[in-house]
Amino acid sequence: MMASGHQSEAELENHLIRKLQSIGYHYVEIPDVETLNAHFRTVLSERNQERLKGTPLSDREFQAVLNDLIGAKTHYQVAQILRGSVVQPTGKINIKRDDDSSLYLEIFNGKQFDQNIFEVSHQMTVEGRHENRYDVLILINGMPIAQIELKRQGVEFTQAFNQIIRYRTESYAQAKLMRLVQVFVISNGNETRYFANGDGELNSNFMFYWTDEHNNWLNDLDAFTTTFLSKPRLHSLIAKYTVFDSSDHKMLLMRPYQIYATEAIIKQAIDYPHENGYVWHTTGSGKTITSFKASQLLLQETDAEKVIFMIDRADLDIQTVKNFSAYLPETTGGQSPLDRTDNTATLVKQLSSNDNGLIVTTIQKMNNAVSNDRYKDILTPYHDRKVIFIEDESHRSQMGEMRKNVNHWFKNAQHFGFTGTPIFQQNMGPDGRTTKDLYENQLHQYLIRDAVRDGNVLGFSIQYLSTFEETDHDITDEQVPGIDTQEVYESEERLTKIVEHILLNHSHITKNKHYNAIFTVANTRMALKYYQLFRRLDPDHNLKVTTIFTWAANEDDNEEHQKQDDVTSRMGLDQVVKDYNQMYGTDFSTDKFKDYFADVSKRMRDHNDQTPTDNIDILIVVNMFLTGFDSKRLSTLYVDKNLQWHGLIQAFSRTNRVEGKQKPFGNIIAYRNIKNKTDEAVALFSDGDSSGFLAPDYDELKAQFTDKIGQLLTVTPDVQSVDDLYNRGDDALYEFVMAFRAVLRVYNRIRVYDDFEWAQYEPEFSDQLMEAFRGKYFTAYQTIYQRKTQERVSILDDVDVDFDISLLETDTINVDYIVNLISGIDLMSSTERKQDIQKIEHLLDNATNDQLKSKVELLEQFLNEVLPTLDTDDDIGMSLSNFMAESQRAAIKGFSQEHHLSEDFVNEQISDYNFYGKTKDKEIIDKLSANGLGFREKRQAKREIKDFVSTIDRKYSLS
Fold it and tell me: In whole angstroms, what is the distance from residue 383 CA to residue 187 CA?
């Protein structure tokens, strides 16, 4: 345990270094960037002595090493080079030696941790835009792999995070090897977190706790160091438990429960190959990443001939396909293991091929394969072969006859299931089997209480609103079948009141439509009724509302709906789709339901402040979208149907994905009395401990809000008094910052409650006062930020205040945002592709971000010239990267020819600038002199070369 009492940062730093030395790290003194580069060169040479054959790396060769490893590459590309491939997990680079021979150098051994050199250093100083002094660096083979920033106790924890952002911005350009950092660690001794490095903006919501196998926090720096930073574990995190998301070009570090579950599966497969197992990880905790990583490692570390990832066809929507494809590597034949078609022959071909050790398919297709005599001869050998099945959302896809058929065929198979809501006796279906019956052994669990505590999912604010008059207060859901469902629950008067309530409150609940909502109802007829009521009561479409559902061919109530426009539910949906086409400029029909479904899914996920005309604010559903649909922008679920057990938890969990500080919890607004069902489900799926599941009730938050308002008005009795604080010094300004931040944090939680009205806090405080104080708060933030950049001394620097400025922000259209949109273009539908391109071009035409504006012409060229040539299975993100790289090569070639320089010379100048932050002026002058240029011509050419070299990577880079 850490020593008691307050430690200074220096004491904490020295304590950490001693602890690392005690677990096998070697201390090395690295005071500056030059020493870091030289040390890496020394270690690289020592580890590759045999390959160097007694000839040390020359300066030019070492520069080639740095260019091949880092150069102008993105962090995503550097991280992949560091690790090698899934099949060959060895980081290596190839350079051409001075004698033109090829040289292969190993930089990282991903198989054995003890074949790498682990070192620690501290207080490396980098002179960038400002002087930055790095607290502690962990090096593997001379490369800085982990950056650790420490704060003394009492300092706001997030400031270590903010410091990392500042260092990346201010000095990574001067310390290029720091681009190799894979993981950041921040700690004040008692609180410790880790998170991944990357190309885009860092998000403090994705700082992770480290835990033991039972999900207990290891927050103390000593406990964290001896577990997370132990050489075997840190090595495994880098070599094994990293996932590359090719769609977003992001490197993801797995969370502890994902790692422990994966390790438990591997152990079960090796030690107990004839016993199945399942993982219970709550909905929204990242089961897809865990299951795919387990699939990869099972193929590498067991004797299984095939690892088959099997899901239900209902879960295989477009976004799911993209997620699968993003995480999975290509096979040796160059194809994705995922086949999205309904063609069973393709699956059989994958099973019989040696190229496809890992296969992703649906249980429906697998059932067809084993049930069809046509494939009997090909599949008969699999009766006895070792096959491992990974089954996602096993409660949906693995119960029933299809599972029995697959089991009967693959007699030597081992099955591992993943579920967020297991089947127990209480919620057992007609099948009569529980998850434990099916899989025998629970290998790991991570429950919703754990996920809420860790900040990996949000808790829920649940409001049960009565929709009956007081005289009808005794009507409950259980009584409805005995009276008249149509009369009570589907009456026009009741439905109208609910729609009016939503129209009145939706904007407030969703933070001015920053988020969107799903409205789940009992049946397709109710969905259509609600849809028509929204259109009638909101004729100007201030809320964009649509509905989607599947229909039965011959519905029981068709007779009742004769002579109406919606005789059948499908006819009603026909009109909905017609309205949808008019609203969004699309051309769908129920004959092309899959295309309509895909577009609705995309609009729900892509909800954005900057493109309100493309958004869906409320989606009315019956059962669709209540399982498997993930969107950070979905914050609210309106409920007018009976939900219970796993169906209730699954539906609620659509709303609780972590996005940012503006989204404190998932909002559930129930227009039926499902409290008892909610309590039962929460108790069952929280394993008896429901702590953290529910947000505080309104009265509790009201008391907090009133208290924080009182504290604010004590510091600043009115808005004008904030201005006086600037004359009283930083101490006074600090008090205001802290007081209003406290108000802002509680307001962000209380604003979504139906009981919340500003009148309850007037005249002391009001909506107008809140907005006025908000403006003063933002001005204080800008003042302090400017003061920091000018390096003026301020008490606010000393206390490291966190402004929570993200609570004030809306969407930002920058390079990362546009690249993600481009990567997400739907190549399978020409209509969708056209709409996606139009949306992106509109955003490009109105770009205000300087970095984005410099790339508009290139991005539009890619959309208009390259995108139409891509096949449906092509990786758009990779194609865009290749296009930018090729465009850069063409620009270099053109510039070289124009200035009568070799491309090699120009590339060397670019490399020097990228790594050292400057060009080698003497080399440029010598080259220009050799070309016969006079003094003025040389001066002009030198200026043009420096301008070109300093801007080319910024123009053609996607980071």
Answer: 53
- The answer on pLDDT for 790 being more than 70 is no
Angstrom CA distances, 61 to 41, 66, 79, 797, 892, stand at 11, 9, 22, 44, 22
Q: Are 409 and 370 in contact (CB under 8 A)?
A: yes
Mean pLDDT over the full length of the chain: 85
Q: What is the pLDDT of residues 917-940, one digit of tens each?
A: 677 788 888 888 888 888 888 888
Q: Using CA atoms, how far apart are residues 902 and 925, in angstroms rounded to an integer?
A: 14
How distant, in Å, are the alpha carbons of 172, 292, 662, 738, 744 from that of 804? 25, 35, 10, 10, 9
| CA 216 – CA 673 distance, rounded (Å) | 36
Cα–Cα dist 520/547, whole Å: 10
**Of 140, 130, 133, the residue nearest 28 (C-alpha):** 140
Structure tokens at 788: 């920091």
> What distance in Å separates the CA atoms of residue 230 and residue 55, rounded to the nearest whole number?
35
Asked if residue 546 lies in contact with residue 597, where contact means CB atoms within 8 angstroms, the answer is no
- Pairing outcome for strands 387-391 and 413-419: parallel
Q: Which residue has the tokens 């020359």?
A: 58
The per-residue pLDDT for 912 is: 73
Nearest of 179, 211, 385, 184 to residue 285 by alpha carbon? 211
**pTM of full prediction above 0.85:** no
Q: What is the pLDDT of residues 401-455, one digit of tens each?
A: 788 888 888 989 999 999 998 988 888 877 778 889 889 999 999 998 899 889 8
Nearest 5°: CA angle at 778, between 772 and 784?
A: 140
Nearest residue to 589 via CA among 611, 603, 606, 571 = 571
Handedness of CA 390, 319, 257, 165 (dihedral sign): positive
Where does the pLDDT of residue 486 fall: very low under 50, low under 70, confident under 90, or very high at 90 and above?
A: low
Nearest Cα to 351, choosing from 394, 380, 328? 380
- Only one residue has tokens 């068709």, namely 558
Grouping H, G, I as helix, E, B as strand and the rest as coil, residue 444 is strand
With a cut of 70, say whether residue 212 has pLDDT above it.
yes
